[in-house]
Amino acid sequence: MQQDLQQLRRDLKKRRALLDPIEITSTSLSIAEKFWHLPCVQRVSNIGIYMSVAGEIDCGPLIKIGWLRKKRIFAPVLAKNRLNFAPLNPGSKLVQNRFDILEPVCRPDDLIGPRQLDVVIVPLLAFDTQLNRIGMGAGYYDRTFAFSKRQKLWRRPLLIGVAYSFQRVENLTARAWDVPLHTVITEQNCF
């Protein structure tokens, strides 16, 4: 199982790395449009996104529309083994973290916790129709949003994965610590 999961990660990373920049842009625009048409995001205020790397869906189009709609956009910042979120504005200074992912520079007082977000766009390598996901393997999103598994009733944030259609797999075996998504958006469908 672990070997299969590692192989799946390698295969999908490789396939994503081979994507043409035009395809990444086209797919990212399509997903942003689908996101902003979801009824559940029409009245939200605080949106968490991720800073894309290595062929991931680019959150740039989604961010720009969010700014135009006067939404507050937040990007993840590493905090030990979890994530906090920093405001992301058009003029934000960005620095690379230890994984070479860009993070906004901000004062510690400006950081917010995951419970303060209404919606979070979650990166992934693979997902299934039961909305299980696998990420890069470090577990930051699962640890950060573990509290949502203990809630009897749904409360924010809404976790929305964004992916290419080829990242959908038949079945992923969820582990005890895995946090499922509420929705996944691809260029073709919403799950």
Strand content: 15-25%
What's the tally of helices? 4
Mean pLDDT, nearest integer? 93
- Gyration radius (Cα, Å) is 16 Å
Helical/strand content category: alpha/beta
Give the overall silhouette: globular
Q: What is the helix content?
A: 10-25%
Q: How are the strands of the largest sheet arranged?
A: 3-2-1-6-9-10
Cα separation of the termini: 25 Å
Number of strands: 10
Notes on the structure:
The chain is an alpha/beta fold and 191 residues long. The chain is 25% helix and 20% strand. The protein has helices at residues 2-17, 21-37, 60-68, 140-144; strands at residues 46-48, 72-79, 82-87, 94-96, 102-104, 119-122, 126-127, 133-134, 158-162, 183-185. The strands form 3 sheets. Strands 3-2-1-6-9-10 form a 6-stranded mixed beta sheet. A two-stranded antiparallel sheet has the order 4-5. The protein has a two-stranded antiparallel ribbon with strand order 7-8. Strand 2 and strand 3 form a beta hairpin. The two termini are 25 Å apart. The mean pLDDT is 93.
Observed structural traits:
4 helices; 191 residues; two-stranded antiparallel sheet; single chain; alpha/beta; 25% helix
Blueprint of the fold:
Layout: H1 2-17, H2 21-37, E1 46-48, H3 60-68, E2 72-79, E3 82-87, E4 94-96, E5 102-104, E6 119-122, E7 126-127, E8 133-134, H4 140-144, E9 158-162, E10 183-185
Parallel strand pairs: 1-2, 1-6, 6-9, 9-10
Antiparallel strand pairs: 2-3, 4-5, 7-8
Helix pairs in contact: 2-3
